[in-house]
Structures
1.
Amino acid sequence: MKAIEVKNLSFAYGQQKVLSDISFSIEEGEYVAILGPNGSGKSTLLRLLLGLLRPQKGQILLFGQEQGKFKNLNWIGYLPQRAVHFDQRFPATVEEIVGMYGSENLTWALEQVNLLEKRKELIGRLSGGQQQRALIARALCGKPKLLILDEPTSGVDPAAQEDFYKLLAHLHASLELSIILVSHDLAAVAREVERVICLNKKLFFHGSKEAFFSQEEFARLYSYPVAWLKHSEEAGQ
Ligand code: ADP
């Protein structure tokens, strides 16, 4: 089944057109990156998928159902941008934050991200990487089929980023979770995902990451030689 089907979607904030005639689909179980320069409409597309905005034109189907009529909202877990950074004294424990939208699967969710032993600690006492894992656990509490992450590694140190991508790969494989990752981290995208959707108001590319990172597609979009990417991957190892 398709997790997401977007057909001829257009959206504007007032007079400002942000997305124009976008069509693509994501199969259940796929790991997909959404790429595009700043202001290209990535976050807007996520807000439309989540029903926080309504399209002016076109259609969004979630697991075969029209977005507006889709009732299984727990099938979609969402990690918004800049969600991490709780103050040291933020008065809530890990389990309170993780279970805030529903605690039925709390223990299971904490186990998935390896934070069960931290459940009674104040969230602000955890490292940035651990806080991020707690937010993943919160998104997992509804036992989602699809996880949507908006720039999840911004503000997280490189070692924790690596652990975070390992965790995503593990969840993708062990839970057969579909993942949509909005990211600027091209080296991580090249390493981690299976398919790429590239936006710049219009749909620029949708296909396998191998095709995207082939000389022509990648260079056409970013005007960088492919060697740049190879270099940044090596530097990251
Ligand atoms: P991205 O996530 O790719 O950086 P966004 O979807 O956040 O892009 O933004 C796309 C465009 O829409 C930008 O020009 C941005 O300024 C504009 N925009 C985003 N949110 C709003 C809003 N709430 N009201 C008006 N314009 C917005």
Note: The first helix runs from residue 42 to 49.
2.
Amino acid sequence: MTAALMQTQNLRAFYGNTRVLHGIDFVLQPGGITTILGANGAGKTTALRAISGMVRTEGAIRFEGARIDGRKTEDVARRGIAHVPNGRGTIMQLTVHENLKLGAYTRSDKRGVAQDFELVFGYFPRLKERQGQQAGTLSGGEQQMLAISRALMMRPKLLLLDEPSFGLAPLVVQEIFSIMRSINKQQGVSMLLVEQNASLALDLADHAYLLETGNVVVSGTSRDIQQNPSVRRSYLGY
Ligand code: ATP
């Protein structure tokens, strides 16, 4: 068994004095895709925000063996964790090119950055055509592509993705998920994916955690979770 890429132990997260995650143990393997499933308000977004240092936490978060809990968001990013937030986090007034350039702000290797522009344009050719266009005028699907691409410009080891399917037409979602799969396989970027659409997420991911009101209630391989009767009833609808 290889060493975990990321691991949380007894992770708790708070908004003010209110605790919304109650002691979560996640293990992410290098090169894997893990999904966090759960109903509205279960704590999925908070789990990603906890890893990124955006909410107050207790418990341990280890990335490549080193503690990252309590670190600033920027430090977490510099270590190789890129966060694609729900709502996408692109800067609407800036062009596609400017947004991508911002994604690489932590890097000083100009040649590598230039190569990575070509890399993301290879995955998302539509962004290449629209390099000079203001991000705010892109379609929803193109904005999601830009958000993922901007995160990739950091050359991350782990991508945190918060509901990339949100508000998009099924065909666009299929296209984006298929590209995410290619990026994972070809670039070895690990992913932690939050999704309401359980069926879609389980098709992409190799492992899954089901959250209910801030606790993990089921975890395992995606295949096992797909066959779990209560998950099928409540989240897969068959
Ligand atoms: P959804 O799928 O609806 O986005 P979620 O599983 O991502 O839900 P979270 O957004 O993590 O859930 O919310 C978990 C709990 O924390 C909820 O009870 C929510 O009301 C609460 N919460 C989220 N953000 C804040 C905040 N900024 N201040 C106070 N409470 C918050």
Note: DSSP finds ten helices and eleven strands in the chain.
3.
Amino acid sequence: MNFHVMTLFPEMIENAMAVSITGRAIKSGCISVNAVNIRDYAQNKHNRVDDYPYGGGAGMVMQAEPVYRCYEDIIEKHGSARVICLSPQGRVFSQEMAQEYAGEENLIFLCGHYEGIDERVLEEIVTDYVSIGDYVLTGGELPALVMMDTIARLVPGVLNNAVSAQTESFAEGLLEYPQYTRPEEWHGKKVPAVLLSGNHKLLAEWYREQSVLRTVKNRPDLLQKAKLTEKECQLAEEFLQKNGNRGL
Ligand code: ADE
């Protein structure tokens, strides 16, 4: 997976991606990150890439030409690819979308700043508009990083353990079950006995039950899509009856 990022702050992208699991994935060649500074494509003495908005109003708008020249340079060198514009106006990012993007060989992210980007260049180059949630950030870099991190861990070879990407939160439409490690007792709290039993059937049942309970407690909205057995539906309903039917 090759990520290309059009940005005014390439060091923000490079620094964040260079650490932890993504950093290791870059070193091993599973992913690459090419952060390209839009300012390098400005054509004026002061390297300005923004200007006042037509019609007036607060803030500045990123100009079309430097963004377009930056895009052309990327596709000339690496071939064309989907261009994802990070924007609160986009479709809200999800694990499902991450799965779909993980199948691409190249992805180009366009990070806006100021009050926005000239609509004409967006019309020409953007294929997907994506938001990471209903709140407004100062720029598209953090959303691009959130997306790249989520997508990268789905790329084969990035996680040591292929099972973990599958069994984690959202993979089956449910939240993840709680985890424990040594010591067996901490602050008077014991690790649930089933985890020490070595009984794989009981363990699998317990994991699933805990996932259902967490989901019904914290994200009941997810249950509509999750496939629950009759017993699991009962468990969820019992919880809701005991705790009030909030959220469903
Ligand atoms: N740019 C500013 N806010 C954003 C958001 N919530 N998602 C994606 N891009 C953004």
Note: The first helix runs from residue 10 to 17.
